[in-house]
Amino acid sequence: MTSRDVDRHLHVVHSAPPSSGVSAPTLVDLARVFDPARLLQARRLAGRTKRSVAEELHVSPTAVSQWESGVTAPRPDHMGRLADFLGVPVEFLTAGRPYARLEADAAHFRSLRSTPARERDKAIAFTEQVWELTFALEKRVQFPPVNLPGFTGGEVQHTDFPTEPQAAARALRERWGLGTGPIPQMVRLMEKHGIVATLVSFAGGATKSVDAFSTSRLPRPVVVLTPDRANDVYRHRFTAAHELGHLLLHADDAPGDPVREKEADKFAAEFLTPSSSIVPSLPPRMDLAALDVLSGEWGVSVDSLVYRCREVGSISESTYRRAFQRLNQLRQVGLFRPQPATAHPGEVPALLSRAFDVAEADGFTITELAREMHCSVRRVRMLLGYEDSRPALKPI
User: Fold this and answer.
1) Which residues partner with 51 through β-bridges?
2) Which GO MF term does the entry hold, naming one (predicted)?
3) Buried-exposed string 88-123: b where 16+ CB fall within 10 A, e elsewhere
4) Pairing mode of beta strands 155-156, 196-199
5) pLDDT value at position 108?
6) Strand, coil or helix: 159
7) List of the chain residues with pLDDT < 50
């Protein structure tokens, strides 16, 4: 499956309307249409507390709370200072555009307990913006339909689909016509079936604790993958399959439940390496060289295959522990080194960027997209995955 498989599902719907030529609104005008929810979103995106906002604007934290709850509205001069401090255009803080509010308990964070609340809030606000970008693009480009069993506009309801993880993985493979062989491109496969995925450093170093998360509570399922896991393509693929398991199995469950996390792992293992195919291929005794060959064929880590060996009883618990000790030793001398996801076509999300490419070919510009979302062009480029990886030139 190549990126063209996604392109075939993207069709122009219509072009953006031309600019109306209306003069820019004043701060007084914008204050009249202040949206409390947008202030909360902007604050979370910036990783700021209410107290820090209050100190910057020389108001009380209570005043900021009242702004966010809609009890009162900020003065026009406060609007401008809020926007400057939070790093958004002042129009961002106004009403009048679609907004899908996502609660923290509606997203499955893989590392929930080790992720500080402020970083989770930032990740949630980022996901809301990903949906908003998707909505803006879907007005102009027809996306692949969501093909996730039981999913309907932000809800997953199962009637006759398996809920046991391994059975669900086998059933989804059958539904998607995958057979029982290796999956060449895990992330592209999800995008082909209408799941929005993203892989950007939206929170600086905070993504190391955020790790990865997903939600099925938006009009399209969203999976957020982070660059910290993408430095190992096999770990990255397993993470994507793990989040797919959450989308399919745990739509209404509280995030962070260790039992649900283990279920998602079981789903991912069976989805990537079906037992009926992988078990007969496993060596009868521990053989890291043989497992390394299988690793390349199936796109999973040697670690995962060692776990599989223990799972089917071909190795003892002590052999299992020694295998990981040996793997750690080999990695310390430069063997079994991970490969980045960026070196593997189909493992870096492309649905959103290719959707914009299609819209752009029809005359839609990134400046118009930024204006519609009330964001900076730089922010929109980041959401699309167009991050500038060049090192910054420091002033002399």
Assistant:
1) none
2) DNA binding
3) bbbbbbbeeeebbebeeebbbbbebeebeeebbbbb
4) unpaired
5) 66
6) coil
7) 3, 14-20, 206, 389-390
The pTM score is: 0.88
Residue 35, classed as helix, strand or coil, is coil
Nearest to 149 by CA among 181, 212, 196, 194: 194
For residue 9, what are the CA distances in angstroms to 12, 59, 139, 151?
10, 51, 15, 19
| DSSP three-state, residue 195 | coil
Give pLDDT, residue 160. Answer: 82
DSSP state of 282: S
First to last CA, the chain: 48
Q: Which two tokens stand for residue 74?
A: 């900020």
DSSP characters for 103-170? -GGGSEETTGGGS-HHHHHHHHHHHHHHHHHHHHHHTTEEPPPP--TTEETTEE--SSS--SHHHHHH
Helix (H) or strand (E) holding 197: strand 196-199
Measured CA to CA, the distance from residue 111 to residue 173 in angstroms comes to: 27
| Domain range for 149 | 124-343
Q: In total, how many domains does the chain have?
A: 1
Q: How many CB atoms neighbour CB 378 within 10 A? A: 13
Neighbour count for residue 74 (Cβ, 10 Å): 21
- Specify the 3-state DSSP secondary structure of 331: helix
Question: What's the pLDDT score for residue 228?
Answer: 76
Inter-residue contact 279 to 166 (CB < 8 Å): no
β-sheet bridge partners, residue 151: 156
Query: Exposed/middle/buried for 227, CB within 10 Å: 0-12, 13-18, 19+?
Result: middle
Does residue 221 contact residue 196 with C-beta atoms inside 8 Å?
yes
Owner of token pair 């469950």: 253
How far apart CA 218 and CA 365 sit, in angstroms, is 26
Residue 310 near residue 300, CB atoms below 8 Å: no
For the chain, the farthest-separated pair of C-alpha atoms sits apart, in whole angstroms, at: 75
> How many residues are there in the chain?
396
